[in-house]
């Protein structure tokens, strides 16, 4: 039976389902084994996924570094809205291919599919280093969107199948924090690569694409080796990392936590029923609102900082600290959220943090204060990526539902990217008042959406406590709010 959000996830032996007739000693042994298994999954799965996700963040946003480093002038991106077009087209295909990719993930297996996606987009990034037209960059970013589309929802889906509900936000935050680290050092890496200007007869911005593309291809190969599949799909001859008994323990824990350890095939009717759940669209909107802020800083932070009067070299160096500072913040807040079994209040708090940061960036005259605003803005927006993913994952059941729901949620992140690309207009650079206010408005919308979900979740849990309702088709299931 699933536990109430008011209790730790099977933290006490009294909370464990004894319907299978096993005694306390055996259950205690399983619990200790489970803890060891979780640590091994942490070591094996999170670094592998996090490393590839980290480079994906660099690969999709290195357009900004290349632009500042000379690509803008060399390929004519300073004319009209060409830069915004290049930012925008990525998200169109990114949106379209999210759910189909999650279906393919189950068909081909996590290691094969996720590493293939990384390899394919690495080729696209590498190719960008040899282009001579802004239109070619746009075409490659269309392909980049296709291949990157399935990675984040695939990772969220895979992680949700290995961990209990109140272990999830911390794990997603660790996985996501590696991308923040990469974003920070990606700017420093770009700064170093730009100094290769003239090596091999190539401009410095071309080396940004070439080296980062090669790194992605290498990580894709390592991902194939280290990424572990879904618990129900592990072929023990190929993955001796877990014994049959350990796989049984994992599945038993997940079944006790939320009753969806076994995969149920994805069908057209199940997909339709899943898409008819109105709550999923609210979770998706929460990912959209955080995505607008995340992509605003990812694509335009360099331009905003450079507009404060700093040199190109200093701009690259100054863009690293806000991302680095966000890492401990995101992990600590996630651990607190998991320990307290709360999601909505954490999402709302971080949205208000991001709002404060955006207002400092837009309205303060002192550049030091504006720069501090980027710390708050990045921390709040970045923190809500794992928070909103965990918020949804905690409140749905069924693996087919998770496959569709995670794809839908990250689809809306792509819409957030499209919005960002269109409201941060080149003619308003480097302050971007329209873009900043749209990103700020999204944070206020986040708070409103959290209030709606919280009211519903409290009502539904109360009705379930009185026996008038069964949440998510499972007796004892309680929503996390």
Automatic annotation (TrEMBL):
Residues in Major facilitator superfamily (MFS) profile domain copies: 45-458
* Keywords carried by this UniProt record: Membrane, Transmembrane, Transmembrane helix, Transport
**Family matches, as Pfam families:** MFS_1 (PF07690)
Kindly list the GO CC terms recorded for this protein.
membrane
Q: Which GO terms describe its molecular function?
A: transmembrane transporter activity
Please name the InterPro entries in this protein's record.
MFS, MFS_dom, MFS_trans_sf
The protein's name is MFS general substrate transporter
Q: Does the keyword Oxidoreductase apply?
A: no
Which organism was this protein described from?
A: Lepidopterella palustris CBS 459.81
Location in or out of the cell: Membrane
Q: Where are the transmembrane segments?
A: 41-58, 80-97, 109-130, 136-160, 172-194, 206-228, 280-301, 313-332, 344-363, 369-391, 403-424, 436-456
Q: How does it sit in the membrane?
A: Multi-pass membrane protein
């Amino acid at each position: 039976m699933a536990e109430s959000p008011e209790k730790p996830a099977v933290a006490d032996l009294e909370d464990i389902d004894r319907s299978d007739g096993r005694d306390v000693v055996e259950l205690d042994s399983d619990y200790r084994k489970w803890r060891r298994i979780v640590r091994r999954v942490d070591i094996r799965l999170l670094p592998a996924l996090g490393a590839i996700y980290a480079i994906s963040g660099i690969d999709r946003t290195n357009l900004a570094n290349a632009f500042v480093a000379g690509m803008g002038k060399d390929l004519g991106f300073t004319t009209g809205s060409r830069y915004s077009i290049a930012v925008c087209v990525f998200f169109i295909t990114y949106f379209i291919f999210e759910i189909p990719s999650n279906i393919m993930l189950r068909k081909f297996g996590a290691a094969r599919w996720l590493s293939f996606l990384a390899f394919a987009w690495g080729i696209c990034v590498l190719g960008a280093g040899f282009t001579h037209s802004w239109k070619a960059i746009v075409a490659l970013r269309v392909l980049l969107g296709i291949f990157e589309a399935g990675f984040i929802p695939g990772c969220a889906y895979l992680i949700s199948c290995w961990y209990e509900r109140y272990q999830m936000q911390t794990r997603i935050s660790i996985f996501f924090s590696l991308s923040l680290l990469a974003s920070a050092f990606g700017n420093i890496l770009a700064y170093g690569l730009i100094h290769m200007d003239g090596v091999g007869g190539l401009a410095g911005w071309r080396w940004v694409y070439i080296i980062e593309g090669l790194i992605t291809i290498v990580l894709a190969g390592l991902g194939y080796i280290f990424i572990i599949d879904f618990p129900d799909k592990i072929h023990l001859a190929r993955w001796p990392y877990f014994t049959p008994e350990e796989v049984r323990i994992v599945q038993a824990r997940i079944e006790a936590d939320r009753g969806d350890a076994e995969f149920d095939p994805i069908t057209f009717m199940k997909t339709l029923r899943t898409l008819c759940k109105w709550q999923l669209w609210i979770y998706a909107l929460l990912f959209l609102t955080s995505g607008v802020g995340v992509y605003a800083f990812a694509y335009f932070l360099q331009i905003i900082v450079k507009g404060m009067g700093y040199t190109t070299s200093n701009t690259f160096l100054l863009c690293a600290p806000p991302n680095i500072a966000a890492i401990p913040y995101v992990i600590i807040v996630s651990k607190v959220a998991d320990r307290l079994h709360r999601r909505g209040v954490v999402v709302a708090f971080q949205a208000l943090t991001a709002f404060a940061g955006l207002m400092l960036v837009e309205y303060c005259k002192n550049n030091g204060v504006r720069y501090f605003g980027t710390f708050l803005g990045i921390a709040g927006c970045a923190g809500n990526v794992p928070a909103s993913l965990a918020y949804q994952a905690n409140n749905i059941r069924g693996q087919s539902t998770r496959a569709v729901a995670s794809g839908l949620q990250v689809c809306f992140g792509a819409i957030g990217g499209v919005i960002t690309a269109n409201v941060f207009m080149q003619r308003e650079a480097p302050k971007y008042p329209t873009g900043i206010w749209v990103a700020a408005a999204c944070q206020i919308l986040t708070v409103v959406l959290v209030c709606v979900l919280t009211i519903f979740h409290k009502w539904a849990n109360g009705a379930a406590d009185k026996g008038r309702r069964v949440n998510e088709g499972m007796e004892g299931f309680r929503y996390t709010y």
